[in-house]
Design goal:
There is one protein chain. The protein contains six helices and no strands. The protein is an all-alpha fold. The protein has a single domain, classed as Invertase/pectin methylesterase inhibitor family protein (Butyryl-CoA Dehydrogenase, subunit A, domain 3, Up-down Bundle), CATH 1.20.140. About 5% of the residues have low confidence. Keywords: Signal. GO terms for molecular function: enzyme inhibitor activity.
């Protein structure tokens, strides 16, 4: 039985194809990672606080898997909804706990009302994202406004609750990030 060998030109061609494919795969991986970073950077540069936006988005490892604005929008709204629910529970727990004086209790009850609306707005925005981006954009903005209403209630009544103010700021930031993204999608 006679052994047949491939012509040297075929071997060289196969080698060059493998090298090319290997380099292309590496370049694709690097360009994909660059695109993800650019996507987050581009969005955050347009928000009310670039640094906090970057911290927020980069704190969740799923942002690395966001392939486009649609993926990032869904992720941001899921995170915003989770944060809003957590804030709503936090405020409700403050109401049921001992918190003095009475006017603080009344302000917290109003904030609980506003946070019910915040949660509903983020939930609606998430559901509308794929079908009606403009409605999602509107609901995202309303969520931020509702957190602002809670903050305004505290200011109006001269009540200072830093933990609630911080949560209001977070909702406004998440709302702003969602607004930037949904504006880009429309």
């Amino acid at each position: 039985m006679k052994s047949q060998s491939l012509p040297i030109s075929t071997v060289v061609s196969m080698f060059l194809v493998l090298v090319f494919l290997s380099r292309s795969s590496h370049q694709y991986s690097a360009s994909t990672k660059q695109a993800e970073t650019n996507l987050v950077d581009t969005v955050c540069k347009e928000t009310i606080n670039n640094t906090n936006c970057l911290e927020f988005l980069e704190s969740d490892p799923r942002t690395k898997n966001a392939m486009d604005l649609n993926d990032l929008a869904k992720l941001v709204l899921e995170l915003a909804l989770s944060n809003a629910k957590d804030s709503q529970n936090f405020i409700n727990n403050m109401i049921t706990g001992v918190y003095e004086p009475d006017h603080c209790q009344q302000v917290l009850e109003k904030c609980a009302f506003w946070y019910e609306a915040v949660v509903a707005s983020f939930r609606s925005a998430l559901l509308e994202l794929e079908e009606d981006v403009m409605s999602a954009n509107y609901d995202v903005e309303i969520a931020g406004d509702d957190a602002g209403n809670c903050e305004n209630e505290m200011i109006l009544n001269k009540v200072v609750i830093p933990s609630v103010s911080e949560r209001n700021y977070q909702v406004k930031l998440y709302s702003n990030i969602g607004d930037v993204i949904t504006n880009k999608l429309s």
